[in-house]
Write a structure and sequence with these properties.
alpha+beta; six-stranded mixed sheet; two-stranded antiparallel sheet; 8 helices
Length: 336
């Protein structure tokens, strides 16, 4: 497997040089000439695996129960340094884990709370159904005490964006004397995501691992390395939801590989997630500025619904086939 992975790194995926009429567009320029344009789309998917807790370390772990690789194994017994505050944070973390308040346990309990909704008045913060919990520690300098804090994110919609009364001071302003948030990682570190590079036709031509952060600089390095491999060729456009930041990076560092390449933001993120005041983004990252990326075959509501229904149909066919192989007798009971 190691040899296979090494081959992929050095030579790329088998479909790296792929092209077809589904991902290549032949268009006529204003001067009447025919030109071709090819597009890739890149985005991260949350599929992390255990990794060394030292930032930017890419060494593999000896087993998935360890927090550090062999090079940094000497740090395994020391979750906190000699700083008294850090030692208190570790003690609070150990205590919360012993009482079933670890993040993983709370997330499991939250799913049970969501499945069995009990409408009882909450008596403590432990009664709040937690899902993706943000954790931090607060240190009271006067007393030296450290406490674990969480912010609950529920599945409810229509939650007010206004601060609650407890978050306001006497003048109605947000409290300014809130202790700073101290964050620590005591559990196994996971890679941030897997960055996929996909053609519009659906063919995945490459991927990369983002270890601690999906930074635009890492994405640019991945794309340049991928499309300078011997079997690859440079494409005309790259679609990425943070391309405005990537374009800033390209221009400031003068990265020659991306010269002449269109770097657009997908229509959804460009319309809803990016500031209208960002001149560079709106002048250079809007797909409307590139006629070769546009056609009359828009995905309107009818097409969206049709596509979704077709995907549900095919997914159900595969699921039922699996159930049949497992002798679970899938069927439609008679209507009474």
């Amino acid at each position: 497997m190691y040899a296979h992975n090494t081959r992929i790194v050095l030579q790329g995926q088998d479909k790296l040089p792929h092209t077809c009429l589904g991902c290549m567009h032949i268009f006529k320029s204003p001067d009447g000439g025919l030109h071709r344009t090819e597009v890739i789309v890149t985005d991260g998917v949350t599929a992390g695996c255990p990794c060394c807790a030292i930032p930017r370390c890419k060494n593999p772990l000896d087993n998935n129960r360890l927090r550090f690789c062999a090079k940094h194994h000497h740090l395994e017994a020391h979750k906190a340094c000699d700083d008294p505050v850090h030692l208190c944070i570790e003690a609070v973390n150990i205590n919360s884990s012993r009482h079933g308040k670890s993040k993983t346990q709370r997330q499991k309990l939250s799913k049970l709370n969501d499945a069995i909704t009990v409408h009882l008045p909450p008596t403590s913060t432990d009664d709040v159904p937690l899902q993706d919990v943000e954790e931090w520690y607060e240190h009271d300098v006067a007393s030296g005490a450290v406490r674990l804090c969480q912010v609950a994110t529920t599945t409810s919609t229509g939650v007010s964006n206004h601060p609650v009364a407890s978050d306001l001071d006497a003048d109605g302003c947000s409290a300014k004397d809130t202790p700073p948030k101290l964050k620590a990682t005591f559990h196994c570190q996971h890679t941030n995501n897997k960055q996929l590079v996909v053609r519009p036709c659906g063919v995945i031509c490459g991927r990369g691992t983002m270890y601690h952060h999906e930074t635009v600089s890492n994405v640019l390095i991945m794309i340049e390395k991928m499309f300078t491999l011997p079997r690859a060729h440079k494409l005309q456009h790259m679609i990425y939801n943070s391309n405005c930041n990537a374009l800033h990076e390209v221009e400031s560092r003068k990265i020659a590989f991306f010269e002449g390449m269109g770097m657009c933001v997908d229509a959804f993120h460009h319309r809803t997630k990016h500031k209208a005041s960002d001149v560079l983004c709106h002048e250079h990252c809007d797909m409307k500025a590139y006629p070769e990326l546009l056609d009359d075959n828009e995905m309107m509501l009818v097409k969206y619904d049709f596509f979704l229904d077709e995907m549900i149909l095919h997914r159900n066919l595969m699921t039922v086939a699996t159930l049949q192989k497992q002798n679970k007798l899938p069927h439609h009971p008679p209507v009474l």
